Amino acid sequence: MGELTAFLPLIEGQPRVLILGTFPSPVSREKREYYGNPRNQFWKIVFDAQNLVFDNPSYDEKKAALFKNGIALWDVIASCEADSALDTSIRNPVYNTRLPMFIAENKITAIFFNGGNAYRFCKRGIGTIDGMVLPSTSPANARLKYPDKLLLWSEALREALADR
Predict the structure, then answer these.
(1) pLDDT of 110-159, one tens digit each?
(2) Are 96 and 78 in contact (CB under 8 A)?
(3) pLDDT computed for residue 131 by the predictor
(4) Which entry of 37, 40, 114, 117 is annotated as an active-site residue?
(5) Is residue 84 very low, low, confident or very high in pLDDT (cuts 50, 70, 90)?
(6) Is the CB of residue 40 less than 8 Å from the CB of residue 25?
(7) φ and ψ at 10, to 5 degrees?
(8) Does the annotation count 40 as an active-site position?
């Protein structure tokens, strides 16, 4: 398998919050959508945290749910080789070294890592970026039940967006 490339940042307007993932899964790359695997709980958590109805929304509706609250998405790995959706399959990562400049240019005030692996890859390849590690929304993360993940994500987003 050859080198795989991540997506461009998902951004509109002046975001205040940046959510960082590790690298798009095969399903996400195939669909060309962040968190495209329907088993990934990311979009449901984003909707539920904002008290929005999650009724099979289109990708444009999903993006609008982020943008209306000044939330952007990106990944810490720009390209790599990978055999599966698991972060453990990532080989030869090329890190997204543009992240610090992106954060400064966009005046991002809150950064959330979608899982510990996103944080660890960031620290290893980019350096320490001040942010909060939240539970991974990946279907591979079964340590926490959905209500517990939702509570942690909701509290973090509510605090970050409090004076918006």
Answers:
(1) 999 999 999 998 998 887 889 999 999 987 767 889 999 999 999 999 99
(2) yes
(3) 95
(4) 40
(5) low
(6) yes
(7) -95, 105
(8) yes
